[in-house]
Write a structure and sequence with these properties.
The longest helix has about 35 residues. The chain has one domain: Orthogonal Bundle (ABC transporter involved in vitamin B12 uptake, BtuC), CATH 1.10.3470. Helix content is about 80%, strand content about 0%. The radius of gyration is 21 Å and the shape is globular. It is mainly alpha-helical. It is built from 14 helices and no strands.
Length: about 350
Amino acid sequence: MTADLHEQYKTKTFQKVTLLFVLIVLCLMFLTLDVMTGPSNLSFLTILNGLVSPSSLSTTEQIILFDIRLPDALIAVIIGCTLGLAGIETQTGLNNPLASPFTLGISNAAVFGASCAIVLTSIFTKSFTFFPVTFAVPILSLLFSFLASFLIISFTAFQSGSKNTIILFGVAIMFMCEAMTSLLLYVASAEAVQQIVFWTMGNLTKAGWPEVIIVTAIFLFILPFSLRNLWVMTLLRSGENQATSIGINIDRYRLFMILRVSILTAFSVCFVGTIGFIGLVGPHIARLLLGEDHRFLLPGACLCSAVILSFASLLSKTLMPGILIPVGIITSFIGVPILIGLIFTRGQRL
């Protein structure tokens, strides 16, 4: 009997590792197609030769590949991984299937910060020419994201980390930031309103190599701290009482979980705008494929989210030739059917 169980465990582990490998292949495939897609046709061999020997490309091809295509494609993958990690941490830590990086209101705070930057720079553009909107938007977006994070972390510490009060407080911040953003939209100029609306749709083309490097560094910095809590996350899915009975301090875990999610979400949103459903749907798909063992679920959530966002980036360039659709619109069209399908197929198991 023990030998049979051991064989079953080995088989299950092999299947999960294989699925992770398939997700990596899919991610690389969509990344490659994303780099190849655009008005200027660059074949796979051209891209490969350019990566190995940039001097083999013409000056125009080098600019297209290294300054436009690669940063856009890579930021889709790394933002997907970042939101996927934040999503699986939030859903597990708060034990809520509808929880996501945006449940806590951090993204709405980022939208309000970006809106403030756009409105202020449109008013004082002649006085502050040294501080253009290109820098003001991510800086104020990041600042307001961290302000919301500070309020949530302070509230969590004060309330001893109760999951229900954390969610309610996050929803309160979300609605407050939405109200303040709506007020700005009401008083702003037509040009500023247009910029704010476009920013809230999510746009990967606003990111370059500095943004790719910053978000990648943040993801790689936070990831080891998440990996240290793999067994805690797995135990929490089996019930808080069981986790508490073996000595896990759930309140302390939730406090640091919110800190990690806040950092990941803030740096993701401030550069590319709000991209919905990635941090919600990606972890659910990973859970459906890989189960509740977070040794596989956590990297699976990152990879699933990266695959979805990379695929959405590809669709944003190809659905309407000659027009680049904001990727946030595409992710909503992808995410809603997937979420509805998960509800029908999994039901209470979500």
